[in-house]
Specification:
Layout (H helix, E strand, L loop, with lengths): L3 E6 L20 H5 L3 H8 L10 H14 L1 H11 L3 H4 L7 H4 L4 H4 L2 E5 L6 E6 L2 E4 L10 E4 L7 H4 L3 E3 L5 E4 H6 L2 H4 L4 H5 L2 E3 L14 E3 L9 H7 E10 L2 E10 L13 E11 L4 E8 L1 E4 L18 E5 L7 E8 L7 E11 L9 E12 L5
Length: 376
């Protein structure tokens, strides 16, 4: 089968008139791949990649983008949430290969990533050759080619790095990683998000391999409590000082090779510190870490639908950068004689529709301290 060479422009700006030229692409559905690669298919089905288009929260944000910004801006979303639309021309979202989101043939057909263009783009060779990070792999069903690209972080950069037409960087995960200690140590996106796990590359009914391992195609990320928990180390240092309880909280980004949170600008990490004195006094303070943008009118953007509109510019960035230690200090008017319960929590939040539901909120760190007062 002769491969079809397709350049995917990530924000989906290929014209509909050009679609018929590639609509007959021989891209396979993931179900077909799963007939032989059962373990890999199962973990991929549990991933955000497989749900990138059909996730209800995304669809709400996508429809809001269509309504607020128009079809042209909405297609910016499809370039990464349904990359096959630029291959099959299915902007009506009717085909199965479209609804499979970031599928097997999307990732295993990449031959290059262009980050210099505006917009950035992937180059795919759709056909019988499947590319991946395993050397000397063989298949009875299709050709297999080792791809050095698939061992590097740039393979992920096509959808995790984006600068708008005005030159404002919106998605900067790849850039953040390039400046991190993780990158200097040779750790890639795949190291943390596609680690090796027990599994069969090929279903044993097709070919049996002893003690087999596969890369985890679930690709856990920002919505994973486990990944969030691994990102930070937290140090809590309370101290009594007269009629004041002082609390220092250190948040150390030790495990993420990028800023936290990263990805869509609407994501937030929220630190809450609660102090409850047994005298009845209760206090709570928060710190919010995120990347905040203004629209062309100068108003802060609160909906995901607004980030890809024209005229967007950065307001501030309070995220915790890779290898950074952020120190936060709090003071509560609770005397040294008062026994106090202290609780420190970290929450991850993503509200694509602003303060409207639905939203994702995960508490990924929580610690309580019992501070005995001098009054007994």
């Amino acid at each position: 089968m002769k491969p079809i060479l397709v350049r995917i422009v990530l924000i989906g700006m290929i014209s509909l008139q050009a679609a018929p030229a590639v609509a007959s692409s021989p891209a396979e559905t993931a179900d077909v791949c799963g007939e032989c690669h059962r373990d890999i298919y199962t973990t991929w089905k549990a991933s955000a990649h497989s749900r990138s288009l059909e996730d209800p929260t995304f669809l709400d944000a996508f429809r809001a983008t269509e309504a607020r910004e128009g079809d042209k801006t909405a297609r910016l979303c499809l370039g990464c949430h349904a990359p096959m639309v630029t291959v099959n021309g299915d902007y009506a979202l009717e085909q199965k290969t479209t609804w499979e989101g970031v599928s097997c043939d999307v990732c295993h057909s990449i031959v290059s990533v262009d980050l210099e263009g505006r917009p950035p783009g992937l180059e795919l060779e759709i056909g019988s050759i499947k590319r991946g990070p395993i050397r000397d792999a063989e298949s009875m069903h299709h050709e297999v080619v080792f791809s050095d690209l698939h061992t590097k972080s740039i393979a992920c950069a096509g959808c995790h790095e984006y600068t708008n037409a005005e030159g404002t960087p919106l998605l900067t995960t790849y850039t953040e990683w390039k400046g991190s200690a993780a990158a200097q140590d040779g750790k890639t996106c795949q190291t943390c998000h596609m680690s090796l796990t027990a599994g069969n590359v090929v279903d044993p009914r097709v070919a049996r391999v002893g003690e087999a391992e596969i890369n985890l195609h679930e690709v856990p990320g920002g919505h994973s409590i486990q990944q969030l928990h691994k990102a930070f180390r937290v140090v809590i240092e309370p101290a009594r000082e007269g009629d004041t309880l002082r609390v220092e909280v250190q948040i150390i980004n030790r495990g993420a090779g990028h800023a936290v949170p990263t990805g869509m600008p609407g994501r937030r990490v929220i630190l809450t510190v609660n102090a409850r004195g047994y005298s009845g006094a209760r206090f709570e303070e928060k710190r919010v870490y995120g990347k905040f943008f203004l629209d062309e009118e100068g108003d802060r953007i609160v909906h995901d639908s607004g980030y890809f509109a024209a005229g967007v510019r950065l307001e501030s960035d309070s995220r915790i950068q890779p290898d950074e230690t952020r120190v936060e200090r709090f003071a509560f008017p609770i005397g040294a004689e008062v026994t106090t319960d202290l609780q420190v929590q970290l929450h991850y939040e993503h509200a694509p529709m602003g303060e409207e539901e639905p939203k994702t909120r995960l508490t990924f760190y929580s610690e309580k301290r019992f501070l005995k007062g001098s009054g007994g």
